[in-house]
Amino acid sequence: MTKDQKKKFKKLKSEKKKLAFIAKLIDQQQALGRHEYWRKVYLRKCAKKGVRPPLAA
């Protein structure tokens, strides 16, 4: 995620909007061809924080 994307995600209040944001981010990463790398890093960060990944990315 870029810094701007991180800021936007932190400002989202509802779970529905957060899930939509993550789905859009996954689509973006797939288009760039970096989805597998991003997915591993994202899952690792979720596990480290003890949080269930929103979309089980």
Number of strands: 0
Structural class: mainly alpha
Provide the helix percentage.
over 70%
| Residue fraction in strands | under 5%
General description of the model:
The chain has 57 residues and is mostly helical. It has one domain (3-49). It is built from 3 helices and no strands. The chain has helices spanning 3-11, 15-32, 35-49. Helix 2 (15-32) packs antiparallel against helix 3. The model has no long low-confidence stretch (mean pLDDT 84).
Give a brief description:
The protein has 57 residues and is mainly α.
Summarize the topology:
Layout: H1 3-11, H2 15-32, H3 35-49
Index terms:
74% helix, globular, mainly alpha, 57 residues
